[in-house]
Amino acid sequence: MGFELLQPRSLAEALEMKKSYGEEAKVLAGGTDFLVLLKDQKLKAEVVMSLRGIRELNFIRHEEGKGVTLGALATHGAVAASAIIRQRFPDLAEACAQVGAVQVQNLGTVGGNLCNASPAADAAPPLLLMDASLILASARGERRISIHDFFQGPRRTVLQADEILKEIFIPQIPGRRGATYLKLGRRKAMEIAIVGIGVAIHLNGSDQVVSDCRIALGSVAPTPLRARHGEEILRNQEIRDELIEEAAEVAAEEASPISDVRASREYRLDMIRVLCRRAIPAALASARGNKVEGLS
Asked: Strands 164-171 and 67-71, how do they pair?
């Protein structure tokens, strides 16, 4: 398992290396997925570029009136513990707190979780709910894309050969927002999601009528996805048990899970329904408890 190791100390240096090596240089962030794939010979690399020494990519920054920006090297542990994230985006904090054991959370990064492009990536569903955008950098410059356009398939993204994920931007969300992320796995620690579901409920004034609803699914399709038809069932409606049931059913119809060693297709579809029935009331209760207008 020999390879050439590149260790840039700045983003500018890393981008020049990526320009020179292109796809030949595999990027390592936290390494919690990368090194396992390398060890199991599911990934081949002759050149590995470690980003661990680039401190400018490791931050969580809140800009009043704009939103929150995560450096690509912000760890799951830091995001889960951040007061800013826990207050404004509890679903993202919950997702990061469920990525493996504490050791994995303290090493693995949100950027690496996204770039690995696993359909089961825990950070993806909450970021889909928030319409996050990703800043991709290269020696040529930077470009911003929606997270909805980032994933192309299992372990495939729109990142070009000379690009590195620099930042994740979460825009300010007005009004009263309640959200949750539920993950089904065989055990709490070190488990890939069998099904992951994020739900966000938005209220404007009334505690009864939902102004917006968002449902995101992980581990049930080639990429993480929004269940947009399921969302429409609840949008601009007063939430009732029969509507929750209908939304859960429609969300399951939007998924295309496979059967594998962890679960069958049929089981995953059933669990989408079960988790939706749990997540929607939880998100609604969270939104109703948010009495202060503004970020929540």
From this structure: antiparallel
d(CA 249, CA 281) in angstroms, rounded, equals 15
Q: What digits encode the pLDDT tens for the residues 100-143? A: 788 889 889 999 999 999 999 999 999 999 999 999 999 999 99
Q: What is the DSSP string of 31-55?
A: -TTHHHHHHTTSS--SEEEE-TT-G
**Coil/strand/helix, residue 293:** coil
What is the domain range of residue 13? Answer: 4-50
Q: What is the pLDDT of residues 50-103, one digit of tens each?
A: 999 999 999 999 999 999 999 999 999 999 999 999 999 999 999 999 997 888
The number of distinct structural domains making up the chain is 3
What is the SS3 assignment for 16? helix
Q: What is the pTM of this model?
A: 0.92
In the DSSP assignment, the letter for residue 8 is: -
- Any idea what the CATH number is for the domain that residue 194 is in? 3.30.390.50
- DSSP at 72: T
DSSP annotation string for 75-135: BHHHHHH-HHHHHH-HHHHHHHTTSSSHHHHHH-BHHHHHHTT-TT-TTHHHHHHTT-EEE
